[in-house]
């Protein structure tokens, strides 16, 4: 097989570009939901907990199906998986333009949207970890910067369309745009370097045996016997609980505080824009300091963000660190299903968080109690990262790895 240095162009960089575009398209719709929140509340009279429940349904579907789509990605590759789920994702948002009842919101955004969104990380990030050993964290950061860009432009585009053409036209136009974009970008994806007769990008003097993620290939049954696997799962639960709660409620909270809808949307978009810096920074740092210290830093920044002003950086960092952490501790052979399982626990947090926070607001007419709960989950996640360590691979040598 040809080494990357023997080729004029390493195809892995094209995988990074395609994955970044896919992330941007997926997240542009997901974060536009905050713009539509007040529109649904005003037109239909639905409670905030009920509306947030659709987002929670999406997260639950995303997490549950992410395990199976991660396995499908391991078997069939990302091009097929992303093509099919991208079609469903865009179609669901387009159908929202015709809805008139709450169950339709749950079906189109929660179920169809969740099914489509389930592949956005497990297919793209698992693929990146197979193509890159050197610069793995940085490449993951570049890919996830696409999602930050989606969060930046998605709410602003949705706000423009809502103000000028109404929320129904906004759903139709954005859903169609994302569906077409997903179909095009997915065609660039390839499962792994071996499928193109090349090898992953490594350092010139890097000994494969010195890289922990290359020496191991733990399957699910082996990984679940390790403490680090469950610590990663519960830490992901904690961080997504906090992140999705803030993302879903920051726009209505800003309006409650007297902000204009445009200014409140700008705050949400600013978080996405600034998170790009966090994704690149944490991605680059991951290659130097490893997964445990990277997760310490993310939870520390989240805690600071909830008490001060740095939520934007931690928001970007968490989604960069998760995938290479799984690759570091358990290898890349079964990365799709393992990462999908970790993201399932994150999705559970994202499912419960917005609804619980919405319920706390409905009861107390204030986000004060919600704020305290988010602080507690942040501290919980930080403590979990202290126990992470490389699995003792010797105990699995006598077991089959498939």
How would you portray this structure in words?
This protein has helices at residues 12-44, 48-76, 78-95, 102-117, 119-131, 136-165, 167-186, 212-215, 220-223, 227-256, 261-307, 311-330, 335-364, 368-385. By secondary structure, the protein is mainly alpha-helical. The longest helix is centred in the C-terminal third of the chain and has 47 residues, at 261-307. It is globular. The two termini are 24 Å apart. The model is unreliable at 204-213 and 309-313 (pLDDT under 50).
CATH class (first level) name = Mainly Alpha
Query: Strand portion, in percent?
Result: under 5%
The succession of helices and strands, N to C, reads: HHHHHHHHHHHHHH
Number of helices: 14
- Strand count, sense and closure of the main sheet? none
SS content category: mainly alpha
> Architecture, according to CATH?
Up-down Bundle
Total beta strands: 0
Give the oligomeric state of the chains in this entry, treating copies of one chain as homo and distinct chains as hetero. single chain
Count of discrete domains: 1
Provide the CATH topology.
Growth Hormone, Chain: A
The helical percent reads over 70%
Instruction: Give the overall form.
Output: globular
Which features does this protein show?
402 residues, Growth Hormone, Chain: A, 0% strand, globular
How is this fold's topology laid out?
Elements: H1 12-44, H2 48-76, H3 78-95, H4 102-117, H5 119-131, H6 136-165, H7 167-186, H8 212-215, H9 220-223, H10 227-256, H11 261-307, H12 311-330, H13 335-364, H14 368-385
């Amino acid at each position: 097989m040809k080494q990357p240095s023997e080729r004029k162009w390493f195809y892995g960089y094209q995988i990074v570009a395609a994955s970044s575009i896919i992330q941007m398209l997926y997240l542009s719709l997901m974060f536009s939901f905050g713009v539509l929140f007040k529109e649904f509340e005003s037109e239909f009279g639905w409670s905030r907990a009920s509306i947030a429940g659709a987002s929670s349904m999406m997260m639950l579907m995303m997490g549950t199906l992410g395990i199976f789509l991660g396995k499908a990605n391991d078997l069939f590759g990302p091009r097929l998986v992303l093509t099919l789920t991208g079609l469903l994702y865009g179609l669901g948002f387009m159908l929202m333009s015709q809805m008139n009842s709450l169950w339709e919101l749950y079906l189109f955004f929660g179920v169809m949207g969740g099914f489509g969104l389930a592949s956005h990380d497990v297919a793209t990030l698992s693929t990146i970890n197979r193509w890159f050993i050197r610069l793995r964290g940085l490449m993951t950061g570049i890919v996830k910067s696409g999602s930050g860009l989606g969060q930046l432009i998605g709410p602003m585009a949705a706000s423009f369309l809502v103000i000028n053409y109404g929320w129904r036209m906004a759903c139709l136009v954005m859903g169609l745009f994302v569906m077409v974009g997903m179909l095009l970008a997915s065609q660039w994806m390839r499962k792994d370097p071996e499928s193109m007769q090349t090898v992953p990008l490594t350092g010139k003097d890097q000994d494969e045996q010195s890289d922990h993620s290359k020496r191991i290939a733990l399957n699910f049954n082996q990984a679940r016997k390790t403490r680090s696997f469950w610590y990663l799962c519960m830490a992901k639960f904690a961080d997504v609980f906090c992140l999705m709660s803030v993302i879903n409620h920051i726009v209505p909270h800003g309006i409650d505080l007297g902000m204009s809808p445009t200014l409140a949307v700008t705050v949400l978009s600013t978080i996405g824009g600034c998170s790009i810096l966090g994704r690149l920074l944490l991605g680059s740092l991951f290659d130097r300091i490893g997964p445990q210290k990277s997760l310490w830093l993310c939870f520390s920044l989240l805690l600071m963000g909830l008490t001060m002003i740095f939520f934007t950086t931690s928001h970007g960092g968490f989604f960069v660190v998760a995938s290479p952490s799984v690759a570091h501790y358990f290898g890349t052979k079964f990365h799709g299903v393992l990462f999908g399982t970790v993201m399932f626990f994150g999705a559970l947090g994202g499912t419960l968080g917005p609804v619980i926070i919405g319920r706390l607001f409905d009861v107390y007419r204030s986000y004060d109690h919600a704020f305290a709960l988010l602080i507690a989950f942040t501290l919980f996640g930080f403590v979990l990262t202290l126990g992470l360590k490389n699995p003792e691979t010797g105990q699995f040598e006598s077991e089959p790895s498939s």
